[in-house]
Design goal:
Layout lengths: L2 H15 L7 E2 H7 L6 H9 L12 E2 L12 H12 L12 H4 L2
Parallel strand pairs: 1-2
The chain binds a DNA duplex (13 and 13 nucleotides) through helix 1, helix 2, helix 3, strand 2 and helix 4.
Length: 104
Amino acid sequence: MTDSELGLNQRIWQVVAAIPPGRVATYGQVAEKAGLSRAARRVGYALRGLPTNTRIPWHRVVNSQGRISLPEGSKPHATQRDRLAREGVVFSATGTIDLRHHGW
DNA sequence: TACTTGACAGCAT
DNA sequence: AATGCTGCCAAGT
């Protein structure tokens, strides 16, 4: 495995793992903290490759609008929302999170 | 080997 | 407010 492969994904996962419960970070923030300043897309790709039983708190990562970036109605979407709600994250009627309050 | 795609985001129009 | 374009970087075709 090359450094660019392992290093990149692990850096991303490490950053995600550091997000405290009850808080959410945007893909852009994760990318920046991982040293990828503008590779928000790469973050989504890395999370997408995580196994279902991973211990990485991937659910604490949402897009810049405070919305879950997964197809509404899909199972992963419901899982993310449920886990966040369980940590005390509040969703508005339209399904958006107030980043001013829950942002990292 | 080259082009397209993707759990995104910021800026321009 | 809604599109569209560009940057990022690995994977798929």
